[in-house]
Amino acid sequence: MAQTMLDEHRTPRRFWAEAVNTAYYIANRIFLRAFLGKTSYELRFGYASSSRAFRVWILEAKQVVETCKVSFDETMPCTIPAFELSGDDEEGTPIFEDEEGVVDDGDAGATAPAAAPAPSATSSDDDGEPLPMASSSLPRQQAHAEAGPAEDAGEVTSEIVPSRQVQRDHRPHRMIGDIHQRVTRPSVNSLAFFSHSAYVATFEPRDVSHALSDPNWVNAMHEELENVERNHVWDLVEPPPNYRPIGTKWVFKNKHGENGMVVRNKARLVAQGFCQKEGIDYEETFAPIARLEAIRILLAFAASKGFKLQQMNVKSAFLNGFIEEEVYVRQPPGFESTRFPDRAYKLRKALYGLKQAPRALYARLKSFLLKSGFVMGSVDKTLFLLSRGGDTLIVQIYVDDIIFGGSSHALVSSFAEQMSREFEMSLMGELQFFLGLQIKEGPEGTFVHQAKYTRDILKKFEMGDSKPMTTPMSTNTALDADEDGEAVDQKEFRGMIGSLLYLTATRPDIQFVVCLCARYLASPRTSHRQAVKRIFRYLKLTPELGLWYSSGSSLFLRGFSDADHAACWIDRKSTSGTSQLLGTSLVSWSSRKRASVSLSTTEVEYIAAASCCSQLLWMKATLSDFGLKFGKIPLLVDSTSVISVAKNPVLHSRTKHIDMVTPPETSAQGAAHGAPSHSELATQVAQQLVNLIAQEQRRRDPQEIGYTDFAALQPPIFTTAPDPLDADDWLRIIESKFSLLPRLTEQQKARFAAQCLHGPSGAWCASFLAVQPAGHQVTWDEFHAAFRAHYLSPSLIELKQQEFHALQQGNMSVLEYVQAFIRLLQYSPEDVDTDLHRAARLLGGFDPTLLTHLGHRYDSFTELVNVAIDMEQRLRQAHEDQQRKRLASTPPSSPSQRPPVEHQFPPHIYYLEEPPQQEQYKAQTEAQALAKIPVACEYPDVFPEELPGLPPDRDVEFRIDLVPGTAPVSKRPYRMAPDELKELKTQLQEQLDKGFIRPSSSPWGCPALFVEKKDQGGKRLCVDYRPLNAITIKNKYPLPHIDILFDQLGGATVFSKIDLRSGYHQIKVREEDIPKTAFSTRYGLYEYLVMSFGLTNAPAFFMYLMNSVFMNELDKFVVVFIDDILVYSKNEKEHEEHLRIVLSRLREHKLYAKFSKCAFLAFLCHILSVKGVAVDPSKVEDVLNWK
Question: Bias category Acidic residues: which stretches (predicted)?
Fold first, then answer.
């Protein structure tokens, strides 16, 4: 070895002693095979030389005392025999000689327990260049070396200087280099590889600062960032305001080769996914992975067909998945940009650690395979198949590991090349090691085992030297809770059970006993650990056991099931076992304990057979994707009672407690699943067993549609119809839902529609079905006709027609009269079939006073309605003016009735001087008429008396996003006083007439209550939405602070304030969120079509609307806080212009203001003046007097 080192580096032979020292330094620290990453020192003594957990070394016996119960001999000298290098033997191998003259060879396992620190030596060659030498691990003694060949002149002796630390001659000259610089590594087949491996970092850094101190880890981090850049994962951008990027972290791990050496330092940059928020940084996280049964089925199928499977791996897998969400991450620690330290990386693709990373990778792989012509499995979504010219290619995905194979070698090679072009792949050749399974494919079949894993866990739990056992458990073992037994370490016990559970992937012989021991994970005792150790001792004898899948075997399905009745003597519950075979290959098995006590042997055997049947049907559906079709599938049981019950389901004492489901298609299923002869103790999957999993089968069968498919379309629930047209609307909606499921039968339509009827309508449906003949299944046409006859009877329609012909305005407003006219018009569309006819009929019902001002000639129905509403407002305003004049001309009868002294201001612009006294601070414009105010009088439609109905469709809709997994909340209505009930009925009718609410059959419902109005007295109808708000995702939009808003008013002296009328009701609720706004009252359940008061995110959504409307005017001459608008200017002329712009914006967006509240000088409890902004003194007094 020393000679090879000298020849490789072209070093003169005078450095022979240094080469020998270096060779021994390396030989004493490495192995030719893997030893779990331990040094020779650790293997001999059990701990590292730097460890403080020293154990006792017996000098005479030359061995370590393993037990912790040892008496220390303090008279024994604390020394260990020293070793020196005495020379070479006849074969040129250095020999160690201890103090007693005992000669030992230089094996790594016989290295001295306490090796001295590594020295270093430096010399020069003939050219005078310094030659750095690697450190040596020999003891601090003078080394003797033989002279070189005859041509070398003289002998060279180097004095070895002791050193406490290993000196590095390759410290990094720059810790953070160019991340685009490629990182190279020597080839494994070259001699330089071993030199490289000797100098790679063997430690794993604690943090990034520790890693930056070593150039090898710096190179590893460069390599990771190069992968990120090469895959175009991110862009360095400015993060959005108020957005906190997700943190990143470095994860460091050493990669070991087959010989146990550290061959690579791997640094992985991961995102701190625990900081992500659902609905903001990610939506879905689930990514399908292959089941172990699916892997075994593929192995058995490939072995039967005689083709070998290949394996490949996607490099930097998660960096290939595109993400849909907008995600920002911080710059990697230690690699922050000096130019843009405040920027963040916007992700194009997924990063390790993100919650959606596995799903994004699966979506990318799935999309590519489907575009390449593959067909995805109908049951297993990780299975993809490609058929070309009679050849088949099968691909199975497990996260970033892909196994594939096919009947054509050209097709397999083409797929590998195609994947390598699209992704950066690691082609691993034939399948040998997958998910811990060792796979050996040969001409006679495939052998699947876990021998390496078995030996590893034996060594991990120190059971490698235990006495082997021929069985995993004793026949007379009866485990119980053993509450009086000695408790053992839970962590160790759970680790042993977890290791054994994964071993059951290829070892069905230990399935039952491992599951039996796993029942006592919560409180393990000594008896339980002894039972687990018995399993390990059995594994010591049989580490090579596995599954054999023979080639050329016929492929047919069959299953076995068995159960023991009340075998557990503690709780008398039963355990069932099943196994399923594909030909002669065992591909699936199970051992389960029932959750409840079985009342008979027949019951437990029957349920075990049903479980086996369920697995067989899943396997049948999976194998159908492989092109295998099965007719009769035998299910072998050893119970004649189960066979008899399956063939003839009579009701007797053994089966009357078993829930028998009536089969929907007995003849078809019975033909598909016949029974073998009883002499074989076999029975076919009987139709009653199929019924137990019929729902699952229908879900997987695309030709069968159940109510769950219909319910996914969210059909409306119908309870009762105050208006007959509501019933007609419900029928039309249900028929539109049916049109989305074209394979529904007429009988299914009737059944599904009946399940949407609740309350009174549900009672009617039950009575309707009760009178049908026995065995008759109602069709949709019959149900439709009966429903219309009940809710839309001719007599009821005729009554509504008479009500329409007699309709007059009476005491209703114009808007209320028009709404009633349109509602009743639907019952008599043939009477007013044209627009002019509708206008004439509406005109005839107006109030006579209004009619005299309207005239009789209008071109359209819409024109008549607009003119009537405008005329009504003018007449009302004129009447109010007359009333005010009459009150003003009447002197007060007493001093107490005198009106307060008012401060006069210009009618439309207000110069604010010193604020008036507290007792004089009142609203000044209550009595002002709109017609007298310049600018504002030009926009009468912006100041209506009431909102004209539902608001128009806007870009901003109120939405209610719920926390995932929440159920609807429903509360009983609050108790109200008689006067409140009267007010409730009045306000409900008002909101119904305006179209703000409607009757509801929603499963949601919060109680309604009244809140006192602060401006003009009276009560406002509100809803206690606290239960709904508690499960609503909060909108994080921050409302502006009032003091900050008023900072914009500096220098302004002219102000106007506009208050929107019922601002929240001017935004619609998103259609799918309307049922969530439902509220319960004494008079029924209603739901809001407009944004209601009390909803948690209502202020934020209204601010979104107002900001979008006044975006160009904000902070120039407009300040907006929810529904309050303040217009400010420096002079009168400028203010008139600003006011017109604001009112034009309101008219354009059909936003309406409340005129009576637009003249107050108080804005948000503050008073404005040229001196600044002051708090309203009335509010100060309220705070001081509050108790």
Answer: 86-107
Confidence of residue 1171 (pLDDT cuts 50, 70, 90): very low
- Give me the count of residues in the chain: 1187
The pTM of this model reads 0.45
pLDDT tens-digit readout, 251-278: 998 887 656 677 788 899 999 988 888 8
Rounded to an integer, what distance in angstroms lies between the CA atom of residue 403 and that of residue 747?
Answer: 47
742 with 829, same domain: the answer is no
pLDDT at 166: 34
Is 172 a domain residue?
no
Edge-to-edge strands of the sheet including 1084-1088? 997-999, 1084-1088, 1079-1081, 1006-1012, 1019-1023
- Residues 346, 328 contacting (CB under 8 angstroms): yes
Of 645, 678, 704, the one marking the end of a domain is 704
Report the CATH number that the domain containing residue 951 is assigned in CATH.
3.10.10.10
Report the distance separating Cα 937 and Cα 944, nearest Å: 12
**CA nearest 976: which of 986, 988, 968, 984?**
984
CA torsion, ordered 731, 732, 738, 744, to nearest 10 deg:
50
- Euclidean distance between CA atoms 1009 and 438, whole angstroms: 69
Q: Is 341 left (phi over 0), alpha (psi -120 to 50) or beta?
A: alpha
The residue that leads in pLDDT, 1049 or 1095, is 1095
Q: What is the DSSP letter of 1091?
A: P
The predicted pLDDT at position 1099 comes to 86
Q: How many domains does the chain have?
A: 6
Distance CA 448, CA 436 (A): 10
- Give me the DSSP letters along 971-1030: -PPPP--HHHHHHHHHHHHHHHHHTSEEE---S-BEEEEEEE-SSS-SEEEEE--HHHHH
> Do 303 and 245 sit in the same domain of this protein?
yes
Single-letter amino acid, residue 971:
K
φ, ψ dihedrals at 937, nearest 5° = -65, -15
- Whether 158 is in a domain gets the answer no
Q: Which residue has the tokens 């593959």?
A: 374
> How far is residue 683's CA from residue 674's CA, in Å, rounded to a whole number?
8
Same domain, 120 and 243: no
Rounded-to-integer distance, Cα 769 and Cα 783, Å? 9
Question: Looking at the structure, do residues 954 and 1014 belong to the same domain, yes or no?
Answer: yes
Same domain (yes/no): 826, 869 = yes
**Taking phi first (over 0 means left), then psi (-120 to 50 degrees means alpha), and beta for anything else, what does residue 481 get?**
alpha
Q: Is 736 left (phi over 0), alpha (psi -120 to 50) or beta?
A: alpha
H and E: helices and strands count for the chain: 34, 39
Domain range spanning residue 600? 555-704
β-bridge pairing 634-636 and 557-564: parallel
Question: Looking at residue 952, what is its pLDDT?
Answer: 87
Do 821 and 926 belong together in one domain? no
**79 lies in a domain?**
yes
Q: What pLDDT band is residue 137 in, cutting at 50, 70 and 90?
A: very low
Task: Check pLDDT > 50 for residue 1066.
Answer: yes
DSSP letters spanning 420-480? HHHS-EEEEEE--EETTEEEEEETTEEEEE-HHHHHHHHHHTT-TTSPP-SSSS-TT----
Q: Give a yes or no: residue 980 inside a domain.
A: yes
Strand, coil or helix: 305: helix
Both tokens of 177, joined, read 């280099």
Q: Could you tell me the CA-to-CA distances from 275 to 244, 271, 355, 356, 654 in Å, in that order?
A: 10, 9, 10, 13, 57
- Shared domain check, 818 and 768: no
- 391-429 burial by CB neighbour count: b if 16+ within 10 A, else e? ebbbbbbbbbbbbbbbbeeebbeebbeebeebbbbeebe
Identify the CATH number of the domain in which residue 610 sits: 3.30.420
Q: DSSP string covering 1105-1126, please? A: HHHHHSTTTBTTTEEEETTEEE
Where among 435, 469, 500 does a domain terminate?
Answer: 435
- Look at residues 90, 97, 142, 94 and name the one whose alpha carbon lies nearest to residue 116: 142
Residues 578, 680, single domain; the answer is: yes
